[in-house]
UniProtKB/TrEMBL annotation:
<keyword id="KW-1278">Translocase</keyword>
<feature type="transmembrane region" description="Helical">
    <location>
        <begin position="251"/>
        <end position="272"/>
    </location>
</feature>
<dbReference type="InterPro" id="IPR059000">
    <property type="entry name" value="ATPase_P-type_domA"/>
</dbReference>
<feature type="transmembrane region" description="Helical">
    <location>
        <begin position="19"/>
        <end position="52"/>
    </location>
</feature>
<keyword id="KW-0472">Membrane</keyword>
<protein>
    <submittedName>
        <fullName>Heavy metal translocating P-type ATPase</fullName>
    </submittedName>
</protein>
<dbReference type="GO" id="GO:0005886">
    <property type="term" value="C:plasma membrane"/>
</dbReference>
<dbReference type="Pfam" id="PF00702">
    <property type="entry name" value="Hydrolase"/>
</dbReference>
<feature type="domain" description="P-type ATPase A">
    <location>
        <begin position="130"/>
        <end position="231"/>
    </location>
</feature>
<keyword id="KW-0460">Magnesium</keyword>
<dbReference type="InterPro" id="IPR027256">
    <property type="entry name" value="P-typ_ATPase_IB"/>
</dbReference>
<dbReference type="GO" id="GO:0016887">
    <property type="term" value="F:ATP hydrolysis activity"/>
</dbReference>
<keyword id="KW-0812">Transmembrane</keyword>
<dbReference type="GO" id="GO:0019829">
    <property type="term" value="F:ATPase-coupled monoatomic cation transmembrane transporter activity"/>
</dbReference>
<dbReference type="InterPro" id="IPR051949">
    <property type="entry name" value="Cation_Transport_ATPase"/>
</dbReference>
<keyword id="KW-0479">Metal-binding</keyword>
<keyword id="KW-0067">ATP-binding</keyword>
Length: 638
């Protein structure tokens, strides 16, 4: 970086941007001073623009040259810029100094864009680390002691109180509770956990206190594995990036070797004088510089990014705009992505003389005293109805809840629990309930009565499918996406039910984060460019591994938002098809621009070799082609 590390986070993320901005300002005022004939001021401002804007490129170019024994475009551009400035001073054609500064400014802007991308991995890891507490309560000789997570040992017994995060993976020794594991497994409903079952670090404890035995080192916990997977996937260079690096080095070598030959051989081969030879060599470096090629790509991608932003699609960098247009397979997370991620009352069926409103009112009377998500969904559904809270409420974890409402006993729970209070379950409801359960819905039976309680109805609870999900899948298939799959930590029944509703044929269920990562890798072996759409912490490794990671902007976790390459700001799934269309248009425009840029470069190179153009004409042709392809790229703004 241009500025010291001690200036903190601002320096690390914004130094390149500040350098590019200062270079641009100095260039503008230097040009203005030169135009007015204030040579002293111009010769003060323009060298400063060269130094500030070109420092980072010069440092990287020289480092590559001396340490790796390689030439790259950074060094080539610096040589071309200095050559233009030297030639301008030599021939008193001072506008050439401006041309050299413009070349440096273009590279400074490119470096600033690259600098932002380099910070994503660090921010993602910091967000992941914040998901687990720093300390845990360890039981030692009957007393609780706060110790750092890093000091936990296998065999330690820890206490987790209601509403707290689980600090590390472990086995429950005593207690019963519901744990919200959506961040880790993607399950839409909190999972009931009791003695002997495993709990994961980073999951949220519900209403019960738990005593947990640490059964693996803290650094081996599931959340720590997620962190390592994200870090590894984000630091692996994709094949396209490796190709670009090789192309830059090869291009620079060819131009430098050709420039040296052009600066030395013509006097011996064709009898040129040395002034003409040097002049042609420097002209060659200017016209052969890849500014037009760079302008053929970045303005197009930036225009596409701006277009996407207007439509609620946030592309974090231009490379992902290109990649999204090449996507051949897409993997969707279920909970919070294809569904809303919040359980709601799906359907209510009553029996005998009762209505569905009676069923909701009776159920809400006891569930109003519950903290369980299912109870909250029932109370929310009955919010506008006239119901009275129950007394003497008693909840039996994992089974149901009972209480007294308006002098009648109310029983709400699963079938086994309700059968303890009623003679039999209505036959007309059994088939309906069985069908609901096969679709992955949670079913609550509602009964009331004192001596002879009777079932009055059933309530189906489900995570709602997003309204635009099915239309999005249909649109993606029409766009030619070859494979669309769903990845989820939920059970098979729920997964297949949602997949059927939205039109997805291939489902992977009951997956942990590393399982999702493996599926993405297998898809990449078959389809090369694969997109992953998700919202949770459990999706972070897959989002990082995918060729293009797409996160839900509203429901997405901080880690998913940081890890993903594209963010759907309003959680509108249909914008994925828009992003693919933008990506494909950007590819077409980039190809057109590359052809134009290479055509101009070849024309200028031939003209320079034949002696039919001078340096000002070469610069005009070079800058003209740059402007032309830039304006072409701006078409994506429409």
């Amino acid at each position: 970086m241009l500025y010291p590390q001690r200036f903190g986070q601002f320096t690390r993320e914004h130094a390149d941007t500040v350098a590019a901005l200062l270079c641009g300002l100095l260039l503008f005022f230097g040009w203005f001073a030169l135009h007015l004939g204030w040579l002293g001021l111009a010769f003060l401002l323009l060298p400063a623009a060269y130094v500030i804007g070109g420092y980072e490129s010069a440092r990287e170019g020289l480092t590559t040259l001396f340490k790796e024994k390689e030439l790259d475009v950074d060094l080539l551009m610096i040589v071309a810029a200095i050559g233009a400035a030297s030639l301008g001073l030599w021939r008193r054609e001072y506008h050439l100094i401006i041309d050299g500064a413009i070349l440096i400014l273009i590279f400074a802007i490119s470096g600033a864009l690259e600098g932002y991308a380099m910070q994503r991995t660090e921010r993602s890891i910091r967000s992941l680390m914040s998901l687990t507490p720093d300390t845990a309560r360890v039981l030692h000789q009957g007393r609780e002691e706060e110790v750092a997570i890093s000091q936990l040992k296998v065999g330690d017994e820890i206490v987790v109180k209601p509403g707290e995060l689980i600090p590390t993976d472990g086995i429950i020794l005593s207690g019963y509770s519901t744990l919200n594991q959506a961040a880790i497994t993607g399950e839409s409903l909190p999972v009931e956990k009791t003695v002997g079952e495993e709990v994961f670090a980073g999951t949220l404890n519900g209403y019960g206190a738990l005593q947990i035995k640490v059964h693996k080192p803290a650094q081996s916990s599931l959340i720590q594995r997620v962190i390592r997977l994200v870090e590894q996937a984000q630091t692996e260079a994709p094949p396209s990036q490796e190709f670009i690096d090789r192309f830059e080095k090869g291009y620079a070598k060819v131009i430098v070797v050709a420039g040296i030959l052009l600066a030395t051989l013509p006097p011996f081969l064709w009898g040129w004088d040395w002034e003409t030879t040097i002049y042609r060599a420097l002209t060659f470096l200017v016209v052969a510089s890849p500014c037009a090629l760079m302008a053929a790509i970045m303005p197009t991608l930036l225009s596409g990014i701006a277009n996407g932003a207007r439509q609620g699609i946030l592309f974090k960098n231009g490379a992902q705009l290109e990649k999204i247009g090449k996507v051949r397979a897409i993997a969707f997370d279920k909970t919070g992505t294809l569904t809303t991620g919040q359980v709601q009352v799906f359907q209510v069926i009553s029996v005998s003389k009762y209505t569905k409103y009676d069923v909701l009112k009776v159920a809400a009377s006891v569930e109003s005293s519950s903290e369980h998500p299912i109870g909250k969904a029932i109370v929310q559904a009955a919010g506008d109805l006239d119901w009275v809270g129950a007394i003497q409420v008693q909840a039996i974890p994992g089974q149901g809840i009972v209480g007294i409402a308006q002098e009648e006993q109310v029983i709400v729970g699963n079938a086994v629990f309700v059968q303890q209070y009623v003679t039999n379950l209505p036959e007309e409801l059994r088939e309906i309930v069985q069908s609901w359960e096969q679709e992955g819905k949670t079913v609550v039976w509602v009964a009331q009565g004192n001596r002879e309680a009777e079932v009055i109805g059933v309530i189906a609870i489900a995570d709602q499918v997003r309204s635009q999900a099915a239309a999005t899948i249909t649109r993606l298939k029409k766009l030619g996406v070859e494979q669309i799959v769903m990845l989820t930590g939920d059970n098979q029944e729920t997964a297949h039910s949602v997949a059927k509703a939205v039109g997805i044929d291939r489902v992977y269920a009951q997956l942990l984060p590393e399982d999702k990562l493996d599926v993405i890798r297998r898809l990449q072996q078959q389809y090369q460019t694969v997109a992953m759409v998700g919202d949770g912490i459990n999706d972070a490794p897959a989002l990082a591994q995918a060729s293009v990671g797409i996160a839900m902007g509203v429901s997405g976790s901080d880690v998913a938002l940081e890890t993903a390459d594209i963010v759907l700001m309003a959680d509108r799934l249909e914008k994925i098809a828009v992003a693919i269309h933008l990506g494909r248009r950007s590819q077409l425009i980039v190809k057109q621009n590359v052809v134009v840029a290479l055509g101009f470069i070849m024309l200028l190179l031939v003209g320079n070799f034949l002696g039919n153009i001078n340096l000002p004409i070469g610069v005009i042709g070079h800058e003209g082609s740059t402007v032309l392809v830039t304006l072409s790229g701006l078409r994506l703004l429409r």
